[in-house]
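mind reviewing both lines:
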Amino acid sequence: MYVKITDAEARMVDDDGPMSDTDLSTTTDGAARGGLRPATIERIENGLVVVLAVAGTLTIEPGLWWFPLAVFLAFDLSMVGYLRSPAAGAATYNAVHTYVWPLVLAVAGLVAGTGAPTLSRWLTLVSLAWAFHVGLDRALGYGLKLADAFTHTHLGWIGKDAGTNPR
């Protein structure tokens, strides 16, 4: 049997039973204890990915500093799934907005190595540009999409729905 509880009720109960108003040490958001919320930590981490992707690009090919910016919107072509439905759009968007594929390209670049230096360099540059895109999206709060709405992400609601729960 399942019991539906409100968000407020969920925040007031932990494994040891009901919390008092002054017992904030067991909350999961960290903010009550003076810490950072998990979404904030994730945004900071993704900002670091952006910095590392730029540094990697500058290290590999300083003259192509503009490359991550030039291909930035190409990764957003994955939103084409939204023409079908929010669920299809979330699936195609999330399939592209993950660190898995940039990692696969980076490994392919390493494997190509000295046997094909031009291929290796371009695979690595594309992987860095892809990681730059994903990292910047998440650092700005554009997380992985949930199937119910484009504006509903794993980091919360975005756009006109930010700070609300429209459903």
Observations:
- Residues 141 and 153 are 8 Å apart (CA to CA).
